[in-house]
Write a structure and sequence with these properties.
By secondary structure, the protein is of the alpha+beta class. It has 13 helices and 5 strands. Helix 9 crosses helix 12.
């Protein structure tokens, strides 16, 4: 992420298009050099020249703000326009003296809007210091209000710039966090979908291999089931990437029963998902899928029991226990899903061995 002063970051800020609306009211400060010029007993050509320079100053100032959105394509452009504005103050100084410091307000404002904040702060500080030193050396302390006006105006518009840049930083960070969360969601969903499906496919392939000689028809049925599972898994992956995948608890109960049975594990799985609070069914479907996948892959169990209630899920087996394979990445993803839904997921040994995966709200 770019730093607050980075010019590429500033190029997208809203004020780069509409800052001229903020710039226009400050033209009122040009009244000081204009009135001062008219009051000076100067030849008409000199007055006309000074007033023309002031008018040109106002024109360049507005032009600079109106085109501000394009200065970031060429970083040097803002500096050149700032230099032109500074040069156009010279005729006013030659005619009205210290009263021309009323034009320094514009230099400070444009410096804030056209330069990185750190550089703008140094420019503004230099302008204020120049005003203070000059009016004191000129013996006109009553003109110190020009320093106050310049400093106050720069602080005001600088605060606007600072707030805007911080808001943009916040927006960039939010977009990055949203993107990261979406990537994690897709990765977790793809893992859950493929992990379960490939486990079932492996079990069915092993079963078909054992049956191919003794019961060819049964082996063909298993191969047909494998083909159906792979097509279903492909569709689920596509739906997951599109953000449309929603696990259904009733489907997962049936799938868990089939997967356990095919793996030679005695399955006690409820058929009715309606006992579960509807708010929890999607999350419990994902947890059930991952827990059963781990039982089939790692547990070496002979029996697995699934228990449901309105606000809980229990998957218990009589296998080697949680120390056999450790907590998988899928279970970590399931724990995150449950935590996001306000519940807790625990994994531990059963009372008589094996592993217990429990979810509670």
């Amino acid at each position: 992420m770019s730093a607050p002063d980075d010019e590429s970051t500033l190029s997208t800020a809203p004020w780069t298009k509409f800052s001229w609306l903020l710039a226009t009211p400050w033209l009122a400060f040009l009244a000081f050099p204009v009135v001062g010029t008219l009051r000076q007993p100067l030849p008409v050509p000199v007055q006309v020249g000074a007033l023309t320079a002031i008018a040109a100053f106002a024109g360049v100032y507005l032009y600079a703000f109106i085109t501000n959105a394009r200065t970031w394509d060429r970083p040097w452009r803002g500096r050149i326009l700032l230099l032109v504005l500074a040069v156009l103050t010279v005729p006013a100084f030659l005619t009205v003296g210290v009263d021309a410091f009323g034009m320094f307000t514009f230099l400070g404002v444009y410096a804030v809007f056209s330069q990185p904040l750190r550089r703008a702060a140094w420019i503004a500080a230099g302008l204020v210091a120049l005003v203070v030193v000059t009016v004191l050396l000129a013996g006109a302390p009553d003109r110190l209000f020009y320093a106050v006006i310049t400093a106050g105006t720069v602080v005001f518009v600088g605060l606007i710039r600072w707030i805007d840049s911080r808001q943009e930083q916040r927006d960039v960070l939010e977009r990055q966090l949203t993107l990261t969360a979406e990537r994690e969601r897709v990765a977790r969903d793809v893992h859950d979908v493929l992990g379960h499906s490939l486990t079932v496919v492996t079990v069915k392939a092993e079963l078909a291999e054992r049956l191919v000689d003794v019961d060819p028809d049964a082996a063909k049925a298993e191969l047909a089931a494998i083909r159906s599972l792979t097509r279903e898994a492909l569709g689920e992956v596509r739906a997951t990437v599109a953000g449309l995948r929603v696990a259904r608890l009733a489907d997962e109960l049936a799938s868990a029963r089939d997967a356990l049975t095919d793996a030679g594990i005695a399955a006690q799985v409820p058929e009715d998902a309606s006992v579960v609070d509807p708010r929890h069914r999607i999350v419990l479907a994902w947890v059930l899928r991952e827990a059963v996948t781990n039982v089939v892959r790692h547990s070496q169990a002979r029996r697995c029991e699934v228990t449901l209630s309105a606000h809980s899920l229990l998957v218990a087996d009589d296998g080697v226990g949680p120390g056999g394979a450790g907590e998988s990445g899928g279970l970590r993803g399931a724990r995150e899903r449950v935590a996001d839904a306000g519940g807790t997921l625990t994994v531990g040994p059963g009372e008589t061995g094996g592993t217990r995966v429990e979810v509670h709200w």
